[in-house]
């Protein structure tokens, strides 16, 4: 602006230029300009905390140009005394809470559980209320939307007829749109509330069920268990394998495995796991290295974890290796899993509780989204699943059938050749007037003796093979009395069938044909 | 067992028997008619393959009758059921060409087997076994297994076994075939003596001319026919 002004001055003064140039040139004495001053260092802006109460500066404790350090008090607000009182009060509350905590820790377990179950009940009621309120809101909004839409349509018609203005019609349309959006929002809310209740997957359930169960008379404690396959990196060759991870509450005794019990406390630390002694080689020689005192760290689902102990659990057809960790660590290692959504819950009863009664009570009190079973029933269900619903079970059943047929054929061959060898004797007995039934009983006895004689070494060999299989695959191989009896009955049936077939030759022939 | 005493021990009428099936069918017995009375001792002789053993097994109810009539102690065996045939065998003591003893039983136990299907008490059975063993001269060998006995001794055990149940009929198929002259004669004499004591009927098949003198009657078989030959009669 200044420069333009000067130029104008020069151009408008042109007629006098000749004479000016003759005279002495004008001297510039002062120049005016706008600008900003900035310090060389950083500018620190100081604000009073924004507050509803509208705090004001009461006293300023610094003067202009004074050097200050970090932590120095610059100003005191008028709310200072009030705030200090609040801090004091909060500290007192902390003390009270700590006292309560130590009280709970000191004992009063049943009281705690009662309190817990009250909380659960309250939550349950809240959930119910929330759901109902939301449903009411939705109903109201639906009615409103209906009205608004009717109104909007009516105004649309009126507008087309020229009876109302465009702005009035648009206003009605807007109202309808707003109500529709409110309705959508409410429906989303309701489904969010409800989602926290029933199953998300068939296998998992919310741990709230467990706390509900804790409130039932006879229950001593409850504990959630998280289960999931998680990616394990073999620390030796960096290969990734799925490892079956069990997340337990490290404060509770839920796994009756010596190694887990001994090291349970260590799982309180973050990113710690226990490794299964019987895991396959593909997972790395973890057990050997750990036992030799090496600290082993590896990656689980891209998280560094440290092995804190070993335990022994046999692999199954579905699981090659296990990890045990705390529930908190589990959720860190499996971020895809939602906390509070557990796979299995362990409910421990008081020693004097009537199991069936508590079971019935739980089944009636808990919704259908959970299954309550005794440990034995759970084991049975697991066995039934493997034997009925998987190819493994079918393969084994088929094996039994094949073994039965092969065994029958072998016993038949033995008996048949024996009957043939002694044909003259049998024929002699027939010639003496012995009935076929007598001969059949003789052969039956022989087959049963064969069955028993074969069964004894057979059982010993089977036990040996079980042992070898167990050593080779670490699969749990159990030979119980029931199985032994079952196999013996099968063997006896097999031998009897073979005997009946083998003796047919004797029955049909006339003794004279046999000589 | 109730038996009709008025009936002959064995009665055979128009008996034919065949071996094989279809085109291979071959007749081995032709129109046999024979009546054997109670207490008779009959020796049947004839060349090998003339059908003696076949006829004997038919009489012993060891083979089913195909054509003609054959009755044992009044019991018709044509179309007899298995059970009837089994019961008929219990009235007959059959002595085989080979002794056919059970090798895993002692002499005593072998004889005991014959009494297992008879209704006798254990005490009576024991008495009868000891008596019969004494009669065949083997009381000192009763706990011997067949493998420890000589051929003659084994055949004597077989005779004792056939006789111990006191059958009405004894059928013997060349009991002396495997024995030397002396023991063969002994065996048959024992048989005859016991049979006469018990009053039972004996039919004995043999090639052995040395024992023909013991028979009440001799019948001769040739090529499946029964021949009445006066020249072989004593």
Please provide a written account of the structure.
The complex is a heterodimer of chains A (515) and B (234). Helix content of chain A is 56%, strand content 12%. Chain A has 515 residues and is α+β, with helices and mostly antiparallel strands. In chain A, the strands form three sheets. A seven-stranded mixed beta sheet of chain A has the order 7-8-6-9-5-4-11. A two-stranded antiparallel sheet of chain A has the order 1-2. In chain B, strand 4 and strand 5 (75-76) form a beta hairpin. The model of chain B has no long low-confidence stretch (mean pLDDT 86). Classes of the chains: A alpha+beta (515), B alpha/beta (234).
SS elements, strand count of chain A? 11
Question: Could you say which structural class the secondary elements and strand pairing of chain B correspond to?
Answer: alpha/beta
Say how many strands of chain B there are.
Answer: 10
Q: Structural class of the helices, strands and pairings of chain A? A: alpha+beta
Shape of chain B: globular
Counting DSSP H or I runs of 4 or more residues, the number of helices of chain B is 6
Give the number of helices of chain A.
17
> If you average the pLDDT of chain A, what whole number results?
80
Indicate the proportion of strand residues of chain B: 15-25%
Instruction: Evaluate the radius of gyration of chain A.
Output: 44 Å
Mean of all residue-level pLDDT scores of chain B: 86
Helix % of chain A is 55-70%
- Give the biggest beta sheet of chain B: 6 strands, mixed
Radius of gyration of chain B: 18 Å
H/E element string of chain A? HHEEHHHEHEEHEHEEEHEEHHHHHHHH
Oligomeric form of this entry? heterodimer
SSE series of chain B: EEEHEEHEHHHEHEEE
Our measurement of the CA-to-CA distance between the termini of chain A, rounded to an integer number of angstroms, reads 145 Å
